[in-house]
Amino acid sequence: MNTQALARKWRPQNFENMVGQEPILRMLTNALTHQRLHHAYLFTGTRGVGKTTLARLLAKALNCETGITATPCGTCNTCVAITQGRFLDLIEVDAASRTKVEDTRDLLENVQYPPVQGRFKIYLIDEVHMLSNHSFNALLKTLEEPPPHIKFLLATTDPKRLPITVLSRCLQLNLKRVPEERICQQLQHICLAENIHYEQAALEKLAQAADGSMRDALSLLDQAIAFGGDTINLKETLIMLGSIEQDAILRLLDALATHDGKKLIAEVASLADYAPDFMQILEEILHLLHQISRIQIIKSTASAALQSLAHRFTPEETQLFYQIALIGRRDLAFAPSPASAFEMIMLRMLAFKPAMDTETLFENKISTTPATKTENTWPELISRLELTGLALALANNCTLTKITDNQVELTLSNKHEAMLNKKLSERIEQALTQYYKKPMQLTIHLTSDTLLTPQKQQEEQQQQRQTSATEAIKNDSHVKKIMDIFNATLDTNSVKAIDPT
Q: Which of 177, 244, 304, 458 has the lowest CB atom count within 10 Å?
């Protein structure tokens, strides 16, 4: 019975089997084909994207007995020895366990000697960023003037920790996270080859949980097979991952859409009964909100449930909810109770719901034909005009006196008289003409009265939000507790209220 882990069994044995790294593979293939070889390669990228695997494939391509080639035979003694990990001229080192300068010197003392079996002696140093500064200095001497029979293949998840002197002597190849779609396709291919029954939705969930790592995806697939007994279905996969079925998340979003606080609390309590990973739930909410926003902005396709939510939320609500969930995800680790913290995040979405969007509000108060009573809708009218810069600033500091069939009268305070000039007035007049689709004449009067302009309204609303935010922080029990423990004071200038628009 074969008990080999899938991550090892399905490790690519040639460039063609690598998943999701086509630009890097093309570069290496061209270099091998045209014999344009570098003495040191640095493979960078997050865990499980194929750095070490690609380095071993390159070692095989450089030493294959058929010659230097992008398509090593895989059957010669050299290829088989590299595959089985017994090729004497491939020296693999885990830098995390050999950080001392003495280790590096011992490793490099045989550099001067030619290879025993192959064409090149290859040093594959994994997690190279873990070497000490002295070790880097020892390595640098060899990197500067390596013998022609030496190749260095370095791999790291953190290239920023490498000295610039080392980086400058390596050909750097940046491996990307593997897209979820490509991971899912590979998992499907493996399941078919291994005769594993699966649900497509379960594989999609595994691909999402892998977070761009092909190795993690295969490890998760192994777990799902063991958990489900050679059958992978969505329900058991969610249990294994500590996730919640999407229907439960959709019910939360439905409660937000209907502004039903009691239902929202009940759904959170129902989730808490399963002791889930609330961090994963927030990630799922962020994922769904992202899909909803794509539907709203670029009309992308999605399930009927998400299409319905996209029509029930305004784009402003979606953006605000996403931001609240993102910040909540960051702060969840600091909460004394994940369940109560998650509930607060959802209640925050309900409490900070944006005001009615400007387009709907405008359509309720002003028609496409000129009205005669529209003073309180001047901010909405401005939002419809294609104004920018100083012309927009002038409009925001005026109030609307009246609109007739082809005339618009505005009032401007004397203290803003310096803003008034013919060019800016003409730009506003042109915008009004374009909006009403007929010639409009604009008149701007000056007054010494105090005016409630759109600019003034925005400032007052922002001040109210700032005051409310400051008071909320001051009255927060957790903040009070921290202030008491550390005898601290609140820096009110650091509090920034969210503008829902």
A: 304
What does the alpha-carbon distance between residue 54 and residue 14 come to, in Å, rounded to a whole number? 9
Q: Which of 202, 221, 225 is nearest to 213 (CA)?
A: 221
Which has the closest alpha carbon to 346: 289, 306, 308?
289
Nearest Cα neighbor of 95 from 58, 145, 133 is 133
pTM of the model: 0.58
Domains along the sequence of the chain with CATH: 6-174 (3.40.50.300), 180-241 (1.10.8.60), 246-351 (1.20.272.10), 366-452 (3.30.300.150), 463-494 (no CATH)
* Pairing mode of beta strands 231-232, 441-447: unpaired
Q: What share of the chain is helix, strand, coil (3-state, %, to 5)?
A: 55, 10, 30
pLDDT in tens, 173-205: 999 999 999 999 999 999 999 999 999 989 998
Number of H-type helices and E-type strands within the chain: 23, 10
The residue with tokens 């290879």 is 115
In terms of DSSP H, where are the helices of 86-126?
101-108
